[in-house]
Design a protein that fits this description.
With 292 residues, the chain is α/β, with parallel strands linked by helices. 39% of the residues lie in helices and 16% in strands. It is built from eleven helices and ten strands. InterPro entries: AKR2_Oxidoreductase (IPR053135), NAD(P)_OxRdtase_dom_sf (IPR036812), NADP_OxRdtase_dom (IPR023210).
């Protein structure tokens, strides 16, 4: 059985590995493939499915293929920017995004709804937080959350207005972990990019690829996974990092998800490995901001 944790003080329980459903929203993923990974994830004990309004067909496919199992998982989704003619980052845009997510996922309530990378200057206004509070009171969302990094994440956490956060945490991306996580232990925390976009796939710098920054950082950190493969080394670091409740693995392949679940279930890295990661980070990475 996949380990589960209380998601802060939200009243939700989540598996230590969640499914990042971004890839199942891509048009080159068939309906059969989407159905296999979504249902297979729940069969493997995954109890968190994370999606977003900007993930193509993802919300629609979650509703289509998991609607009949809606009570078996925590649904986490994100939105807020301009939509259907609404002004960008306006209360109307947030409300319309919530309504759209409810409709597409076939849900009566979204368990968690995050403002998706909302800029800090917008957060300082406070009106979007008020809008989320009203949506909670109306029963449309269960927990109001913020998804982002760096200064905006720090502001969101310090404000006390959000019951959950989603942010980058991995061996090559530790600013959020070291500077923000744990400040409000009552908040639920989802770690995204837990295997750092798998930069070890590339023998040379992958110019223009989304893994390029993490590839550069791993060269500088000069870490050694020992007998483990890189994915297991990275995932076990993130899943058991202080303050993290669950780490979402993005994939459209059920076999990949199974491999990650097996790796995470082996428990935290040994103390020596953690010390080596800490030493390397303090030596070369302490000034690195989180990737956005």
């Amino acid at each position: 059985m996949l380990e589960r944790r209380s998601f802060g003080s939200t009243g939700l329980d989540v598996s230590i590995v969640g499914l990042g459903a971004g890839q199942i929203g891509e048009v080159d993923v068939t309906e059969a493939e989407a159905a296999e990974v979504l249902n297979g994830a729940l069969d493997l004990g995954v109890t968190l499915v994370d999606t977003a309004a900007s993930y193509g067909l993802s919300e629609e496919r979650v509703g289509r293929h998991l609607g009949h199992r809606r009570d078996e998982f925590v649904l986490s989704t994100k939105g807020g920017p301009k939509i259907n003619g609404q002004r960008d980052w306006s209360p109307g845009s947030v409300l319309e995004s919530i309504e759209r997510s409810l409709r597409l996922t076939g849900s009566e309530r979204l368990d968690i709804f995050y403002l998706h990378s909302c800029p800090v200057e917008i957060l300082r206004r406070g009106d979007l937080q008020d809008t989320l509070d009203k949506a909670v009171d109306a029963g449309k969302i269960g927990v109001a959350g913020y998804s982002g990094d760096n200064e905006a994440l720090a502001f969101a956490v310090e404000s006390g207005r959000f019951g959950a956060i989603e942010t980058s945490v991995n061996i090559a991306d530790q600013w959020n972990l070291r500077n923000v996580l744990g400040q409000r232990p009552e908040q639920g925390v989802i770690a995204k990019r837990p295997i750092a976009n798998a930069p070890w796939r590339f023998p040379q710098r992958p110019v223009g690829n989304y893994a390029e920054l993490y590839w550069e950082r791993l060269q500088a950190l000069d870490l050694d996974p020992g007998a483990m493969d890189w994915a297991e080394f990275a995932l076990r670091f993130t899943v058991y990092a202080p303050g993290v409740h669950t780490a979402i693995v993005g994939t459209a392949k059920l076999a990949h998800l199974q491999e990650n679940i097996t790796a995470a279930s082996r428990g935290p890295l040994e103390a020596g490995a953690l010390q080596s990661i800490d030493n390397a980070w303090r030596t070369v990475g302490s000034e690195w901001p989180a990737s956005t």
